[in-house]
Design brief:
- One of its GO terms (cellular component) is plasma membrane.
- InterPro entries: AAA+_ATPase, ABC_transporter-like_ATP-bd, ABC_transporter_ATP-binding, P-loop_NTPase.
- This protein has about 325 residues and is α/β, with parallel strands linked by helices.
- The protein has two domains: about 220 residues, P-loop containing nucleotide triphosphate hydrolases (Rossmann fold, 3-Layer(aba) Sandwich); about 60 residues.
- The strands form three sheets. The protein has a six-stranded mixed sheet with strand order 5-6-7-3-8-9, sandwiched between helices.
- Strand 8 and strand 9 form a beta hairpin.
- Helix 8 packs across helix 11 and helix 9 packs antiparallel against helix 10.
- The longest helix is centred in the middle third of the chain and has 16 residues.
- It is elongated and about 75 Å long.
- The chain starts with 7 loop residues before the first strand and ends in a 12-residue tail after the last helix.
- About 40% of the residues are buried.
- The structure holds adenosine-5'-triphosphate (ATP).
């Protein structure tokens, strides 16, 4: 079987929920394309439609309208042909709570034809020491890592993770990122949701900015920052009036904005040259270089700030 060009494609997908309070348009005109062998992050706040999208990608929900293709197949009808190739981390492994970690992994891997060795997955996620512990006695963060392990033991081509680092302390989170990156380097495709800018910046090869059920913008973190947030900017407070020659020089370097209160900024990649002009003879003070981040790109794409909750243990 030849591999499809895209791991996941959503074209103008809509999904609503009818609730006693009215219809919720959870996913609305969602269009995105995820290439294989990459880590893709759906980045957006609570309620943006990330989980609903992931559930449609694995076939747990059907779209009301539009096209979803996962590894080239329609997840609503592909059945076992897809379920052996795609794994999603169980949101809450409430079932089998009385089992020990090792027992649950053995049971879970028995559901699949070509599972990955459970010991290898447990080892990579630093869970080996917990094999004899009952699932119910695990901490939230350890349990979250077990959920990722349960998905990975299926040995999928496409791994779907819904906010995988929720509840992890900073060290565990960074370790999880390095494990996910190493799996990607061995050919796995990962599609994950997150509301952490830091996670998307550190981990994702491509980011889909999700806003009110649709994809507002997509690209590598660097592309999104460059195209949406612009380049670095030098901010300054004018002390002595800039003369025409200074202003002309600054305009040659980039885009100059001077405000009525005599503050200003120059958007330019040539920050050293800009600083030299602005600082000469004490013309300006409070000089500060601002390098745009994914948060700035997110704000430019959606008009909203996305505040990442602090990871547990901070
Ligand atoms: N089963 C459901 N029944 C009714 N409404 C739902 C259901 N699942 C999700 N919703 C609503 O659909 C919208 C999108 O939810 P979804 O969980 O897809 O977003 P999300 O981006 O994953 O958010 P979170 O980060 O909070 O999980 C929200 O308003 C949510 O309340």
């Amino acid at each position: 079987m030849s591999a499809p060009a895209l791991a996941v494609e959503m074209r103008d997908v809509r999904k609503s929920y009818n609730t006693p309070g009215g219809t919720i348009h959870a996913v609305d005109s969602m269009t995105l394309r995820a290439e294989p062998h990459r880590i893709h992050a759906l980045l957006g706040p609570n309620g943006a439609g990330k989980t609903t999208s992931l559930e449609m990608i694995v076939g747990l929900r059907r779209p009301d309208q539009g096209v979803v293709r996962t590894l080239g197949l329609d997840p609503a009808t592909a059945g076992r042909e897809l379920s052996t190739r795609v794994a999603i981390q169980p949101q809450e492994a409430k079932i089998f709570e009385r089992l020990r970690v090792g027992e649950l992994m053995t049971l879970w891997s028995s559901f699949y034809t070509h599972p990955r060795p459970a010991e290898e997955v447990l080892d990579s996620l630093e869970l080996t020491n917990y094999v004899n512990r009952e699932v119910t006695k695990l901490s939230g963060g350890t349990r979250q890592r077990l959920n990722v392990a349960l998905a990975m033991v299926a040995n999928p081509e496409l791994l779907i993770l819904d906010e995988p680092s929720t509840g992890l302390d900073p060290r565990a989170r960074e370790h999880l990122w390095s494990v996910l990156a190493s799996w990607r380097d061995r050919g796995l495709t990962i599609v994950m949701s997150t509301h952490s800018m830091e996670e998307a910046t550190a981990l994702a090869d491509s980011v889909f900015i999700i806003d009110h059920g649709s994809c507002a913008s997509a690209g590598t973190p660097e592309e999104l920052i460059r195209t949406l947030a612009g380049g670095p900017a030098v901010h300054f407070q004018i002390v002595r009036e800039l003369d025409d020659a200074d202003t002309a020089r600054l305009r040659q370097l980039g885009e100059l904005v001077i405000n009525a209160d005599r503050t200003g900024h120059l958007t330019t990649d040539r920050t050293d040259e800009a600083l030299a002009v602005l600082a000469a003879d004490g013309r300006c003070r409070d000089l500060r270089i601002q390098v745009p981040t994914l948060a700035d790109a997110y704000f430019a794409a959606t008009g909203n700030q996305l505040t990442s909750p602090e990871p547990a243990g901070v």
